[in-house]
Amino acid sequence: MSSKAGTSGHHHHHHEATGGNSWERSYRHVRDNHRIHLEYTNRDFDSCLAHIEEALEQSEGLAEYPLYVKALIRRRQGKIQESLQLFQKATALNPANVSNLKQVGRSLMLLGKFRSSMEVLEEAKRLDPRDWEVWHDEGICNAKARSYEKAVECLERANEIQPHDTTYLALGGVHKAMSKHKRAVQAYSQGLKQSPGNPELLTACGLAYLRIDENYKAFELLLKAISVDPKNPNTILATCSMIQEHADLDTALLKYRVAAVVNPNSSQLWNNVGMCFYGKQKYIASIACLKRALTIDPFDWIVNYNLGLVHLSTGQHASAFHFMSSSINLKPEFPSSYMYLAVILSKLGDVENSRAAYNKALSLKSDYLFELNYAATLYNFDLLEESLAHFRRFEELFRDQPNNAPVEPDVPTQREALARAHGIDIE
Amino acid sequence: MVGQGLDPLWLAQSKYRRRKYQECVDICTENLHRNPYDESFWYLKCRALTAIDWLDDIELLDDTLGDQLLDENAIAQMPRPGTSMNRPATGAVGTAAGGQVRGRTGRPASGFARPSSSALRPGTSLERALGTAAGRRGTTARPVTSSGRFVRLGTASMLDHCGDEFIDSDKIDIRKYAKKPGLARALNDYMLYVDHNPKRALELCSQCTKLSDYRDWWWKERLGKCYFQLGMFRDAEKQFLSSQKNCGTVLATLDLCKVYMKMDQPLKALEAYEKSLKEHKTSVSLLLGMSRCHDSVNNFEEALSLYKRVTQLEPSNVEALACLANDHFYNDQPEIALRFYRRLLQMGVNNAEIWNNVALCCFYSSQYDMTIHCFEKALALAVDEGMADVWYNVGHVAIAIGDIGLAYQAFKIAVSVDASHAESYNNLGVLELKRGSFEQARSNFQVAERLAPELHEPKYNSALIAFDAGDYEESVEMANSALETLPGHEDSSDLLRQLEKVLSLL
């Protein structure tokens, strides 16, 4: 405003007049922005928008901050395209402001336009290479565009500049997507060092430990997560499935009840509840729960598999066959399904197909349990020689087991029975 | 040669009694040519023509698009729970959970395809399996208003005997006929059902009512009918009530309740039914009407107990049996449902829908060998629209046995038979998604959504796809519209919550 000052008397006079006005105007502008900011942070969006419109009208649409806040509000409302245009306007008004550029990038990302988003973020990086958010967003973009290596690089850079929980979570997620569970665990653990009480990090880390079969660690973390956030259905599901594995069914059921209120439409939840009842030998309840799981997700092979198991236990072999074959149709590469299918077929009296199923199971995986069941089935159909051969294979495999490996209680009794039948001394 | 010696009037009467209406009309026309003033022939021809075009309007409750748009009988925008059919779900709060779920997923609430009111728009969902109701989609051109429909039926029937129009109701001298009670009744029905001229019929009715000292229930009932056809529901109500006062007939009650349903006052209709039932304890039509009324406000338990009463009175009532079967099926008792369907089959009901239902019952009660046979039978009997539904169900069974290829083919066939089968498109989309072909899935959902905007599944699925693809704006939009079609849809609200989390990040 003062650039034109003092060129002439007349001008000077003019300047005085507008000068007072402009001072007033700029003061007003600060006051408006302050009010907009207050209302936005108080989530009073309606009156905030009204004030923004007022401010924009006065400045003829050339006020940066009101534009910026309006864009933020529009984005919250899901109008991302409009929000993008507003951010772009704000950027045009003040191209030197990194936060405008960052928001343009983020809006593009939310619209699924990752490549253009990354271009904008590159631009923002040129303005301020030490802004962690830019690196973080670029990492997310890369992850969504499935260039995981690049994503890891960006996210790690973001953490170098300033570590954040969200960045650690994203980093772990990228590692998980690459099936590098050990590195995911590392990322989450690092994040936990920063904020040991973050339930999301705790759950994510616990699940990652589960993937690398460190059950004890996983359990510890999940319990911690549940104590911080007792109602998160995913955490409950993960924790309970572990409790269930240790055969503490009543505790698991108690916790599932909490989860069922929050998320009644979870197929996995009903599946697990069903298997809890199965463990308690309440077959009718079990079937009801499993069928519910199946109506929620008809494509889940494991629900079909479990239904097959339950029907096998209740002696409804035809239904058991039906569910087991559905399970195999949906997931043909799971060897145990074939073993159970073989058992079911043998109960239905179909030796030929039963043998075919056993052979298929064994071709996928050599397992002492398969051999034992095969031997028992063959013995029951008076095919003694073949039965003996498979029993011998079983013995070999069973003896190779490490001593501390868990063995189902049924196996030794069946083994003794078969050994006696074949007249073999196992000891 | 045969009829030469017979008295033509007697012959015509005999034809009429044997329901050979067209032949009866021919004889009458011939004789009327000879003597245009022969009242007996005139009467008989009138009756016969009416019988040809007879429309059991007690059963018809079709709210067409135009009626909905031009509805002058404004009702409260926010009716109290359970008092309106326009938001039937509100009535179900607190009743059996099963009933509520049914109402919400949009499965057919009744197992019987009946000409139904707008509130009961049957059958549209992934779960929709039974009672494939007719008139579900507008594949045929619908008349714009219901009086339009009467007109349409009218013109269609006029074609048969155009050229010599029997009675020109606009020119006829009503006062002359009103004095002859027998002829007047025949003439009135002719004007209502054949000529579709409720205005003139109304004049005749009011004349006759006046002549009968306002005591004749029949004329009042017909007067109400005229008002109903003219869309003057309040006047119709008055006439039916007054007719009931003269003589408490079932007919007047049924008419009255039809008016109440049309005015969206199901509770009042129930009251009227209740009152009339005290007099006519064994009237099946009253009981059926009442249970339909309960159905329309999602009060399924009441409806079912009434259907049971109907079966006790009339063990071969198709509607009651079908509804009971439907209920048992959805309450996870397919074996019992199967017994009802078997009964229906024994009674001689033999169509694609019933075999389809039997197949589903067999499947869910684990009688797999029967399932395929029944579906084959259903397909052999099915015509276009029904066929698509049958294939749709085959697809579901295929999913249940894990045969995704067969499911895919079944849905494809359903779509090829009936290109507007939105549910099949939706399921095709889901299968495409399972196969990993993203674009195909998306386009399938879009088609489903365009064909049936009242389905929430394709919208939710589109929202999910958009969410996974990272297009959050589209996702918000679709999730919101899914919630609009089905308020309280758990998964959509869940998705929106997730979206909000992402969007409110700075």
Automatic annotation (TrEMBL), chain A:
> Domain of life of the organism in this record?
Eukaryota
* InterPro entries recorded: TPR-like_helical_dom_sf, TPR_rpt
Disordered: region residues: 1-24
Q: What GO cellular component term, any one, is given?
A: ciliary basal body
Q: Which UniProt keywords apply?
A: Repeat, TPR repeat
Membrane spanning stretches = none
- Biological process, per Gene Ontology: cilium assembly; protein localization to cilium
Q: Note the segments forming the TPR repeats.
A: 64-97, 98-131, 132-165, 199-232, 267-300, 335-368
Query: Is DNA-binding one of the keywords?
Result: no
Report the family membership: Belongs to the BBS4 family.
What is this protein identified as? Bardet-Biedl syndrome 4 protein
Lineage of the species this protein comes from: Eukaryota, Viridiplantae, Chlorophyta, Chloropicophyceae, Chloropicales
UniProtKB/TrEMBL annotation, chain B:
Please give the PROSITE patterns that the UniProt record associates with this protein.
Answer: TPR
Q: Which PANTHER family match?
A: TETRATRICOPEPTIDE REPEAT PROTEIN 8
Organism (species): Chloropicon roscoffensis
Spans annotated as Disordered: 78-124
Name a single GO biological process: non-motile cilium assembly
Q: What is this protein called?
A: Tetratricopeptide repeat protein
State the TPR repeat positions: 284-317, 388-421, 422-455
The cross-references to InterPro entries, in alphabetical order and at most eight, read: BBS8, TPR-like_helical_dom_sf, TPR_rpt
Q: Could you tell me the keywords of this UniProt record?
A: TPR repeat
Give the GO cellular component terms, alphabetically: BBSome; ciliary basal body; non-motile cilium
Give the source's domain of life in one word: Eukaryota
Q: Does the keyword Nucleotide-binding apply?
A: no
* Residues spanning the membrane: none
